[in-house]
Amino acid sequence: MTVIVRSLSPGGPTDAADVAGFAAVRRACVPAMLATPESVAFDGAHAHPAARYRQLIAETDGEVIGTAQVGIAHDSPEPGQGFANVYVHPERLGTGAGTLLLRTAEEHLAAEGAGTVYSWVLDEPANLAFAARRGYRASRRAHFLRLDLARGALPPRREPPAGVELVSGSVFADDARPLFALDAETAADEPGDVAAQFTDYEHWLAETWRHPLVSRELTTVALVDGRPAAFTLARTDGAGRYASGMTGTARAHRGRGLAKLAKNDSLHRARAAGCTEAFTGNDTGNEPMLAINQWFGYEICATEVRHVRHLG
Questions:
Q1: Closest CA to 295 of 151, 154, 157
Q2: Domain with CATH 3.40.630.30 in the chain
Q3: Does the N-terminal or the C-terminal CB of the chain have fewer CB atoms within 10 Å?
Q4: How far is CA 230 from the centre of its chain?
């Protein structure tokens, strides 16, 4: 069995079998992370030029058996930080695909000036051992959580407090700048190894707000005196699966339960629209959000461990 690694066509027409295979591997390895052929192609075509983003596939006999997402953390204030997230189909482990994908990813990042590589690794003995053998050191952990929308009971909708209004994200279809500002503020406060600073509104529009997985109708925004104060960004794959892309509250309005209010409304919208499963992810250090998700009835379905390696 010969394994080869190559890139998907960046920003251009991509073979339909490649993007379908990429999405299938991602779903098999991490079901909580929504992936469709359309979203894979979109991610490659709309990545920021400074990210030097590449999507790699490992294949054998024409079958895609592994993937990697590789790039530079261009929105971090600290330069030289790269990422390489490698996944191999559970039925194709031991073929050498992971080794080839990681080697190719590291070579690309080194050539682009990265001195540090961060990688999410599934919290399973074989995966952790693979990372350790290649010089990666374990850092922080994050959970994937699942909620059964078909059979689970959601908390009832509550009437918003005075001065607070819940609206759909579609309200901002023509001008999403207020949501961009809120997303930038909440993302800057997220716990993590690599800080993020959103400053490019046009790119946020292209990469986030217009992403094919994003549902503006199922996104909920809590307005305080008419301005966005909290939100939950909804993603759906068209097959009954819903995911919270981001949930956060502006600093000036934290501690009022607005994120919980917005997420509950979004989940009710999702169930009414026919979604049967809801997924989300939390850094284990984000205790307030973990508590909110446990209140909804989410249960941990998988865990990843962030690893880091210094190149050279």
A1: 154
A2: 4-114, 147-302
A3: C
A4: 19
pLDDT tier for residue 11 given thresholds of 50, 70 and 90: very low
The CB density around residue 45, as the number of other CB atoms within 10 Å, is 16
Q: What is the DSSP letter of 214?
A: B
Instruction: Report the top-level CATH class of 4-114.
Output: alpha beta
Concatenated DSSP letters of 68-106? EEEEE-TTSSSSSEEEEEEEE-GGGTTSSHHHHHHHHHH
29-53-244-150 Cα dihedral, nearest 10 degrees: -40
Residue 206, SS3 per DSSP: helix
pLDDT digits (tens, 9 = 90+) for 37-70: 999 999 999 999 999 999 999 999 989 999 999 9
Q: For residue 167, give the H/E element and its range.
A: strand 164-168
Does domain 147-302 fall under CATH 3.30.40.10? My reply is no
Helix (H, G, I), strand (E, B) or coil at 3: coil
